[in-house]
## 1
Amino acid sequence: MKQDYVLHLADTHLILGQRLGEWCGHNVVLEQDIAMSNIALDLLGQCRSLYQYAAELGGNKQTEDQLAFLRGERQYKNHLLVEQPNGDFAFTIARQFFFDVYHQLLCEELVKCSDKQLQAIAEKSLKEVRYHLTWSSEWMIRLGDGTTESHQRLQTAVNELWMWTHELTTTASYEEALDVPRPSDFKAAWHAKVSAILKEATLEIPAESTKQAGGKEGVHTEHLGFILSEMQMMQRTYPGMTW
Amino acid sequence: MSKDWPLWEVFIRSRQGLDHKHVGSLHAPDTRMAMENARDVYTRRQEGVSIWVVASKDIHASNPDEAAQFFDPAEDKVYRHPTFYNVPDDIEHM
């Protein structure tokens, strides 16, 4: 049960890190290429701690690498939002911003939870996450309140991603059963923060739309399979391969 | 995009250092992003604890063509170095 929860956190970090990593060498400017890669690496660092803990919870039958690289699609519990393709720069920024607001709220709750290990991981992550949110919020405002084209592209991204954001503040059965933060408890806080930045960015807050969920329970969009096949190719082709 | 962005010079003070040292330059549209880009580009390996960014256009450099008149006259002025004083023996740390 607890392993499910830790895997959910780890998977979300891993998949978003992988997505951001896809920008490496392709970003719009060199400085942002490095900024985005830094964030990707922060997320990978965080997911390593989480996978190590998940391995420990599973009685060390599997290593962190096996958990990250050798599970099937239905066993991944990441949010659907983070597996959505990068799209254009505006799309990646909006996805990151929605996630960062959630991530900071989550870490702020996790530092108070009874599990010492999760508490320690959250404490370490929080400094990184605060910077991620500053970075993505600023880009939201710059692009939203920027040129006509940047505004329109970001508004499109916000509208298209909106239905995936619902899942960030849903509580899965394994969260109900544990003494861990319930994301549904910070739904209002998430909306307040997101609305404030969207407003400052002169963007429209999308109307309630379809609410997509399922990632936390292992039901994914078609995109995850492609990410995994790329990520897992080496371990599956050369089992046990190391650097 | 970045070619429209102005250039900034970045100065970093290391953990042990007392002064900010020039480490390089970057592009950014304003001071705030210049600062963040400097953080991301130049301090990701713990290089520093403090950052200055200065718009490159605000830096006035000496002209290399004038180097002779600027710097050469100092060459034969050894008396400008404080090396001609006799320091009494009981003065320490000099």
## 2
Amino acid sequence: MTIDQLEKTASQVRRDIIRMVHAVSSGHPGGSLGCADFFTAMYFEIMDHDPSFNMDGKNEDMFFLSNGHISPVWYSVLARSGYFPVPELSTFRHLDSRLQGHPATHEGLPGIRVASGSLGQGLSVAIGVALSKRLNGDDKTVYCLTGDGELQEGQIWEAVMYACHNKVDNLIAVVDWNGQQIDGSNDDVLTLGDLPGKWESFGWQVMHMDGNNMADVLKVMAEAKAALGNGKPVVVLMKTEMGQGVDYMMGTHAWHGKAPNDELKDKALAQLEETLGDY
Amino acid sequence: MSEITAYDKKATRDGFGAGLAEIGASNPDVVALCADLVGSLKMQQFIKQSPERFFQVGIAEANMMGIAAGLATAGKIPYTGTFANFSTGRVYDQIRQSIAYSHKNVKICASHAGLTLGEDGATHQILEDVGMMKMLPGMTVINPCDYAQTKAATIAIAEHHGPVYLRFGRPGWPVFTPADQKFEIGKALHLQSGSDVSIFATGHLVWNSIEAAKILASEGISVEIINIHTIKPLDEEAVLDSVSKTGAVVSAEEHQRHGGLGDSIAQLLMRKMPVPMEYVAVNDSFGESGKPAQLLDKYGLGVNDVVTAVKNVLKRK
């Protein structure tokens, strides 16, 4: 896809996110909007993946979402890229839906390989998958997205230490570095300090990316992939704006986990072009 | 009926090590992980045979459970090894979300369970693990009684698709089940027939129940002994068959009374066949340092405690 096509797709994904969380008056729009460009690039351009979906993911790139609360962006992109019918997005967070509040395998939603939501666990799972690929002689790449506030979980650093020691170099971790979490900014709640320095000192190759600039996402993710296979895991510190694309949701943590009312929903949708057709 | 006798004395953890090596040699999908306790878990032979399929994760149990979930996602059959305490309570949320809720085919292999860990004391003597694990939907919970059964169970769980909690222990313990047995998950073993009372025992307490039954026999009390190696799913038919004959029950386990095998049996009997029942289990208490036999006696899990429980239940019959 061209950058223009990807940006148009991301605009539709943002509309889906707003409409999903508005319809059930719950969910997490802020981080979902911030990551819309990244998810769109991953599923429509970067990853070699199969929407017919096999759990074991043999011979394809595999993606793991550790900060499961931004499920709306993942569901939208999975549906729009062919994993399940787009109208199913309307069942988000409803009873008997496959689109649980946080991603789960239990209901059999294609595209999801492990439950996430309780934070800090996804990177470990992604490492396990990367080790399996190595055992199987499968040269595809494993990706894992974590939040930034999520890095306050101790298990993350167990995983970070492990990946370096064991040279897990078929894995790219991406951190959604929007600087916000539920109770405020990272710096107010529990500062991440020198985040690049932390990863570097744990032996990872660190890259920086503007997660709300499609051209930069494509460029840096390509560089990250090219850096694999050199004995070091790679992390991309992705700067995003929580609430990106909806003016009143940007620059604050207020929309981390809150849905807009009817009026604010309309105000948001007025800022987001309908490009692929609403569900 | 001939008396049950022990033909050897070995630790159940050695049975795990032997079983892991055997299944590792025959099934290339089996992988193993350990959190810095290779020697304690007796995993050396597996590592020697298949170093590329072994993952040393260091003292990082949460990460180990996550990596195991990932390996299972991609089709491997991971066996995790650490102490029972660090296999359950320390990583409950990782097991709950990444393994149980996500239907991952992970075998959580837990050594040094219960009081018989001995001198290390209560920090390591977990007595709540069976309760935690059996509450997780879809989790199979197995607590074999001796070396030979642990070895057979370790091999058998590779053929079962789904998460398993396999619990075993540290001390040398009488070996009395057949060396060449085939382990059937969920199938209780009828060890001895009797008519007065049914003892349902798991883990190390099976042997104590056998010893107790010998004493009781000399006093004219006829004891039926059923080995419940699989606590979940419980072999309800075997329990009800035995109880319909004896009409009195003692459960015996190296675990808290709350949440263990006894509670599973009591729940079944309450619904289907209410009869008098006594527990041999730890009564809402932590353990302490000491020798395994001393600890079992002090906390009410000794041979004499089984004898007393049987006599008490018979009074209520």
## 3
Amino acid sequence: MTAPTPGVAIEAGHEATQAIGAQNGRQAPRSRPGRSLLPALIIVGAFLYYVLPLIATASFALSDGRHFTLAPLTDALGDPAFHDSITLSAGIAVLTTIVSILIVAPTSYLIVLRFRRIRTLMDFVTILPFVIPPIILTLGLRQVYGADSPLGVDLVDSPLLLVAGYFVLSLPFTYRAVDNAMRAIDVVLLTEASESLGAGGLRTFRSVILPGTLLGIISAALLCFTTVMGEFTLASLLGYATFPVFLNNVYASAPREATSLVIVSFMITWAGVLALAVVGRRAGGGTTALRRAA
Amino acid sequence: MARLELHGITKRFGDQVAVQDFDLTVGDGELVSFLGPSGCGKTTTLRITAGFEFPDSGSIVVNGRDITALPANQRGMGMVFQGYALFPNMSAADNIEYGLKVRKQPTQKRRQRVAEMLELFGLSHVAKSYPSQLSGGQQQRTAFARAVAVEPSVLLLDEPLSAVDAKVREELRTEIRRMQLRLGITAILVTHDQAEALSISDRVVVMSQGRIEEVGTPSQIYAEPRSEFTASFIGAMNEFRVRIASRSGGLVERDGVQFEATGAADLPDGSDGLLLVRPESLEPVEAGAAPVGPVIRGRVEVQTFLGSQTRLLVREGSDLDTSVHGSRLVAVDVPSAAAGRWPPGAEIAIAIPIRAARVIAVRASDLRSTAAVVTGPQGR
């Protein structure tokens, strides 16, 4: 009874050790590369997915069919219609961004502060542009602001009509970005603190709420700007030669030129993103950098 | 520095009455605490005073001036919020300076005042730090400094210590009191922490269900509560049902024994009363001694160590008494050094000292099936 027991124990122990060893041996080599390979594959795949079309576009655009040439690009850039369209687009984009922020930021603040009850309604209203096709929006804009306007204003010939339309179109992005930032800080408490120190509403908004939500507001501005720069349907239907409309027109007659402009527009967007990111870091980074330092 | 008067403040939220007929005058330089369980209306009253809520009826008067209709930013009061509400984008110094900037004080004067505040609150070394870099205590002091920098007429403190750890809390509450006395500022402190209210207030307003239960100095509130709510909310209290035996003689009767009790003269003969005795006022009867007044006999159930004192929870009645309603828990504090004499299970006799017993009227709603109830938190 006593004799075999240690033997059994040793054997069992030995087996167990072997089993563990085998398991380790099996797991270690398989799991490590397995784990690091998949993300790498995903990254490479995503990179190719994004970059290959760009390379293809660039190689198509900057060529005369056989050789590399910058001619399509320089031709396109020299086209006065290009200048007009890009100026119009940028102007409308800047104006829309300014108008959007000026309307959306205080609205979002007041909803959080005073009109919590309509918050759900606002959430619903601001995503409507996702659901309503631009063609409906165009018809609506024409009805309200066109020649037969019940308001008595004919804005169809003014780019202001586009600003109004784009304000609505970019609302899902702008409102959400700003509203998220408002939710991230305790707007009500900070407002009360500011009021208890004697500040009025404007002062509170400018000195406390705006700096606290700046990053959200910057990203809202960025989203609004890029949305407007790339919008085609509304401008085309309303008959404005914005940059995307111009691109579409050129594409029919000179596809290489149009394609080279696509590359340019990519670069403009990237530059915009970069600029806003830098501004954002500088503005919101004062505190962040200090916090990091400590 | 100011005298604050609240007259008949009533506030409803929908069907809920948050505050009802709140009347209080806070004297110049006085610190008054609003104490009560959550939902008793203390915070609403403070917010009405601050101007964040407006009363349905009643008025708020500061130094003789009716400010009921004024918005918060024109009341000239200072407030320390529960979560401090420091501006995250401003350094400690900028937070303190904010109110001065709003008041358009000249730069030189502002800087001087900020430096003074930083110095006073021991924050000079963290002046340039942002709220997220400050410790809880430093944030609390910054919030306090920010509120008093503008020399407010009244300082409102909304549970200012609830976000600090227990250890720092005691230290900070003494500091709040010290600063309040030093600045001579009129202040209201809202708290659900009775120790906080009792330790640093000139007067305590005990609130329940939107009404003032009782106003008094901390020692009055603790030693001579006038309502059962106050008695049970503040500290640990033994409550015994008694009958007023003789109003003129100041006698009450319990279990057939008649004895003197303070307050019996205020109640009609034959009416029910509640006899209130703090655990520390009860005394175990030494063997062979013959105490004057009533004696409670029972067995020790639990000992709770409280430091210098140990609290014994004694179940009254004999082992034969199996009725649930008949069993009564009585708390009695004994010196910890002597607590070994009454281990759990030991028999004990407890005397109710005549002078320590006070009797108050029983409200119809307060009638309970058990004759004696130990209420309130274990420690004080």
